[in-house]
């Protein structure tokens, strides 16, 4: 490891230090003293094996931090051996360890005008972190302030030349980076192809052969101690003579995986036999040029060039090669595309060298042998009470965070000397954000809408403009980056490109217009200050996956992603779990003008169905606001591309995101996505077609792939029988028929008279001895014989269904909110309005025969419960003594990952966890929730249960739960582990 210090910390003739403005913290009060703190126990269990994988008791967190956030921070970021006095046990210790190191780094390198400014910097940074307004990337929490090397970067780019020494050095450097839990990317295009000769006269091996060794090395290091696969990116230029072999590597291996799986080998991700397959530890990308993409459009030939001479040694049909790239991506999700000319057109340091590669997640793109430290803001924290985005507050936060990120380079350590030198000389930063999907939903904006894109573009422009403005201000204090002088004109040209892109953004409302005006002013300041001072940083912003740190900030959505699903899986204090509806949904509905009863009904519908299609009272033009990454209203693939295109012109780097396609997508659709991404100015694009990979374990057999496998097995058995071959042993499936639970001869019943919209009627309901509803009879006054017959038939049908086990909850969810005449006012104080007689009848039955928990999921409450909610904020009764005990911060509660309802005090859990709060910490209206009794352990598995379709994601290797997409990686909601470098 190499230790470095800033080469520009003390520059003659420059002003001494920066004045820090107090924005967030309170004068005379430490940020910790403003909060209520509580002690918790964290016990984490592997869902698959039942084994305890982590336990630490008595950890300290603010009371508004979720169970999931505190669990992830405790397990991932607290340092020191478990069970010893040196082990960290409080969030205060963790934040102090990091923030005080940053303060010292700033003081040692003359960033602050005075000691008072240094202290204010410490308090402001602490306030933002403890209130979950932003987070540094994971290496900061792992390493800063510890005895370990002070590595702060998560993203690395390496380089390799056409020599054996360089190739072996590549293996070594990559191994060191993997060992530290980070990821790296590199371009192999300098290595001569297998179609060229060596200086000795022999034939070269080619880059694909050397990929095998690197892949095996990555897999070995992972199995030697890491809990996730090594994160790496391999890039090859489209004009390399071995490009076709590179394109087909992983597709061919996927065919091998299928063959081995069908032969009975364990080929799931993490399976014992998957290690026999090659090229599984890297993401592959093809570097395409504008020349190649134009040849694809025109249908002309394209030349592949010798690595040693640069001469064209082979020509190929560009369209055919492009089809092979898309077909391979259709088969196995690799390779992605990186658009070389676009990337280098936005490059601030072309005089130093071209950008040839990226980090594994494709958001960091810069010079070879460089690194980038990341930080992400929680956008939802900046949503004001009037549902507008607080751009001014956001910009103040960005200024402080950029200052801290630049300070970290002064004291950081790096895995190699060359990476350390490049990073110190160019000081690349990667500020970004998370929770964009949740923010847009809360503002009533569709993710795939002009309004959503305008808001996202304005926020991204403000973030990067403010970052470069602060970078220019820092240059006046501690000097520009060392490589600035030789790249000054190019850097200023890129700043003008950002400014020009900002000028063409078309805002659609007052909310995005206000943010855009701030961005416009920021870019004007960038041009002015940059001309005078230069810039402290070659790069400022990226959009990273924000997997683990997103959970640390309690974000609903990661990075630039839309919401994954409308229902969430929430862990409870004391153990167990709960299904809740995304808390931004009620806020969005109120923003769009829906009344409280309508909000309750829509939320209850979403809780049951997982989507908004046919939700009662929801206008179809508002459906797009609630579109998600997965589920019945999943976003169209081009919706993802258009959102990336809206934000890309305002980023120094790129965007970590995968465009998800349904299993039915065609090769031609992938071709179109790749082509449109190039035309829209993206720097990189990756795609994933559902179920295209075998090595993705599914949690059930409901997916189409599973059905296809079963069908194939059935056909094979039939063929064997027809040929006289003894078929394999047939599995006998026992079919269980429904059983009718008849009512006793003498049973309890109740008769209810009612009036709906002036129409009178009577309902008689009969119950079993245990109180369960078993029959109903309906009679309407002043009715003809036909209607009477229809009502009798309807009553008999419902009664028989009830006796055969159809849950009353099912009938209630289907028949409530049906609209037809007569409708209107009723004479029932519990159901004041009914949209039809059926709506009234099943609401009344729900109140008479269903439990409070089941009714609350459907938004059905009695008059007494509604009154209690108006008085206390809760529909459910709560004992005062218990409420007070829940607020006792010395109480030790247990955090468990098992969904075991036997260990839950359900009443206490509902009161402690069903309540939701808005982004400012104020109590919001209660969102219907229910305790979860199934096999789901994450939102991904919960979505599978609701929709009946599988979410195509791997299982977490740490805790065994189903992961969900985050950028171009996967993240585990149970323990925070990721499959990438974030």
TrEMBL record:
Cited InterPro entries: RdRp_reductase_class-2 (IPR050862), RNR_2_N (IPR013678), RNR_lg_C (IPR000788), RNR_NrdJ/NrdZ (IPR013344), TSCPD_dom (IPR024434)
The Enzyme Commission number assigned here is: 1.17.4.1
Q: Where does the signal sequence lie?
A: none
> What is the reaction catalyzed?
a 2'-deoxyribonucleoside 5'-diphosphate + [thioredoxin]-disulfide + H2O = a ribonucleoside 5'-diphosphate + [thioredoxin]-dithiol
Query: Mind listing the UniProt keywords for this protein, alphabetically?
Result: Cobalamin, Cobalt, Disulfide bond, DNA synthesis, Nucleotide-binding, Oxidoreductase
Entry annotated with the keyword Kinase: no
Cite the Ribonucleotide reductase class II vitamin B12-dependent N-terminal domain residue spans from the record: 41-132
- Ribonucleotide reductase large subunit C-terminal domain: from which residue to which, for each copy? 153-688
Q: Which cofactor does it need?
A: adenosylcob(III)alamin
Q: Where is this region: Disordered?
A: 896-934
TM region positions = none
Query: Which GO terms fall under biological process for this protein?
Result: DNA biosynthetic process
PANTHER family for the chain: RIBONUCLEOSIDE-DIPHOSPHATE REDUCTASE (PTHR43371:SF1), VITAMIN B12-DEPENDENT RIBONUCLEOTIDE REDUCTASE (PTHR43371)
What is the protein's name according to its record?
Vitamin B12-dependent ribonucleotide reductase
| Species annotation | Nocardioides pocheonensis
Q: What is the lineage of its organism?
A: Bacteria, Bacillati, Actinomycetota, Actinomycetes, Propionibacteriales
């Amino acid at each position: 490891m190499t230790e470095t210090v800033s080469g520009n910390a003390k520059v003659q003739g420059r002003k001494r230090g920066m004045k820090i403005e107090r924005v967030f913290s309170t004068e005379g009060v430490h940020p910790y003293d403003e909060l209520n703190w509580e002690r918790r126990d964290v016990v984490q269990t592997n869902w698959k094996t039942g084994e305890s994988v982590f336990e630490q008791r008595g950890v300290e967190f603010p009371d508004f931090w979720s169970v999931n956030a505190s669990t992830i921070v405790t397990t991932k970021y607290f340092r020191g051996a478990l069970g010893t006095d040196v082990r960290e046990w409080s969030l205060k210790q963790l934040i102090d360890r990091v923030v005080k190191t940053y303060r010292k780094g700033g003081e040692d390198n003359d960033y602050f005008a005075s000691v008072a400014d240094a202290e204010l910097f410490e308090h402001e940074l602490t306030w933002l972190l403890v209130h979950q307004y932003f987070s540094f990337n994971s290496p900061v929490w792992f390493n800063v302030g510890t005895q370990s090397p002070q590595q702060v970067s998560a993203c690395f780019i390496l380089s390799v030349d056409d020599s054996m020494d360089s190739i072996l050095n590549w293996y070594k450097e990559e191994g060191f980076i993997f060992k530290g839990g980070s990821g790296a990317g590199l371009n192999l295009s300098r290595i001569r192809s297998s179609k060229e000769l060596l200086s000795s006269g022999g034939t070269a091996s080619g880059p694909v052969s050397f990929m095998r060794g690197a892949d095996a090395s990555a897999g070995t290091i992972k199995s030697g101690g890491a809990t996730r696969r090594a994160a790496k990116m391999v890039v090859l230029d489209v004009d390399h003579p071995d490009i076709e072999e590179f394109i087909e590597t992983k597709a061919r291996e996927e065919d091998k995986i299928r063959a081995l799986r069908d032969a009975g080998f364990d080929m799931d991700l993490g399976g014992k036999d998957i290690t026999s397959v090659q090229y599984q530890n890297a993401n592959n990308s093809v570097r395409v040029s504008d020349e190649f993409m134009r040849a694809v459009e025109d249908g002309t030939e394209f030349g592949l060039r010798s690595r040693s001479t640069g001469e064209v040694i082979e020509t190929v049909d560009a369209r055919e090669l492009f089809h092979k790239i898309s077909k391979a991506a259709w088969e196995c999700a690799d390779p992605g595309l990186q658009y070389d000319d676009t990337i280098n057109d936005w490059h601030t340091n072309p005089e130093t060298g071209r950008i040839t590669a990226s980090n594994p997640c494709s958001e960091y793109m810069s010079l070879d042998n460089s690194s980038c430290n990341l930080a992400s803001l929680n956008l939802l924290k900046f949503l004001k009470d009037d549902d507008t985005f607080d751009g001014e507050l956001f910009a103040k936060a960005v200024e402080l965070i950029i200052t801290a990120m630049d300070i970290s380079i002064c004291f950081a350590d790096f895995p190699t000397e060359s990476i350390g030198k490049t990073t110190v000389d160019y000081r690349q930063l990667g500020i970004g954000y998370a929770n964009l999907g949740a923010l847009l939903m809360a503002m009533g904006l569709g993710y795939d809408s002009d309004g959503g894109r305008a808001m996202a573009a304005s926020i991204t422009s403000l973030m990067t403009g403010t970052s470069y403005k602060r970078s220019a201000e820092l240059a006046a204090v501690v000097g520009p980056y060392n490589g600035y002088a030789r790249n000054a004109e190019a850097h200023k040209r890129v700043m003008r490109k950002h400014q020009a892109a900002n000028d063409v953004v078309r805002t659609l409302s007052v909310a995005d217009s206000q943010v855009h005006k701030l961005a416009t002013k920021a870019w004007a300041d960038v041009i002015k200050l940059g001309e005078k001072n230069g810039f402290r940083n070659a790069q400022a912003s990226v959009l990273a996956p924000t997997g683990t740190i997103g959970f640390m900030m309690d974000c609903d959505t990661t990075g630039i992603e839309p919401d994954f699903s409308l229902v969430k899986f929430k862990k409870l204090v004391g153990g167990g779990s709960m299904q809740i509806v995304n808390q931004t949904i009620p806020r969005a509905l109120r923003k769009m003008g829906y009344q409280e009863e309508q909000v309750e009904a829509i939320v209850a519908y979403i809780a049951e169905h997982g989507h908004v299609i046919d939700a009662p009272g929801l206008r179809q033009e508002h459906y797009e606001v609630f579109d998600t990454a997965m589920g019945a209203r999943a976003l169209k693939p081009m919706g993802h591309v258009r959102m990336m295109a809206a934000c890309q012109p305002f980023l120094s780097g790129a965007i970590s995101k995968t465009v998800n396609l349904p299993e039915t997508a065609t090769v031609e659709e992938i071709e179109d996505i790749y082509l449109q991404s190039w035309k829209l100015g993206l720097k990189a694009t990756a795609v994933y077609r559902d179920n295209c990979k075998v090595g993705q374990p599914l949690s059930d057999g409901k997916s189409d792939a599973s059905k296809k496998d079963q069908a194939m097995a059935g056909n094979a058995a039939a063929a064997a029988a027809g040929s006289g071959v003894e078929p394999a042993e047939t599995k006998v499936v026992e079919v269980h028929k429904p059983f009718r639970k008849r009512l006793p001869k003498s049973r309890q019943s109740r008769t209810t008279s009612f009036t709906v919209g002036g129409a009178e009627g009577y309902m008689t309901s009969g119950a079993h001895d245990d109180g369960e509803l078993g029959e109903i009879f309906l009679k309407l006054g002043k009715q003809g014989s036909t209607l009477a017959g229809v009502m009798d038939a309807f009553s008999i049908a419902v009664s028989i269904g009830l006796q055969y086990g159809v849950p009353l909850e099912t009938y209630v969810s289907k028949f409530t909110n049906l609209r037809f005449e007569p409708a209107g006012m009723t004479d029932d104080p519990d159901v004041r309005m009914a949209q039809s007689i059926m709506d009234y009848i099943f609401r009344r039955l729900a109140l008479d025969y269903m439990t409070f928990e089941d009714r609350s999921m459907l938004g059905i409450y009695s008059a007494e419960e509604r009154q209690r909610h108006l008085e206390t904020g809760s529909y459910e009764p709560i004992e005062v003594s218990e409420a007070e005990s829940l607020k006792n911060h010395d109480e030790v509660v247990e955090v468990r990952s098992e969904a075991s309802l036997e260990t839950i005090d359900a009443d206490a859990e509902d009161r402690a966890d069903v309540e939701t709060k808005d982004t400012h910490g104020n109590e919001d209206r209660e969102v219907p929730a229910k305790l979860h009794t199934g096999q789901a352990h994450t939102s991904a598995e919960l979505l599978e249960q609701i929709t009946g379709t599988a979410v195509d994601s791997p299982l977490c290797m740490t805790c065994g739960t189903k992961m969900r997409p985050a950028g171009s990686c996967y993240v585990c909601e149970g323990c925070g582990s990721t499959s990438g470098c974030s």
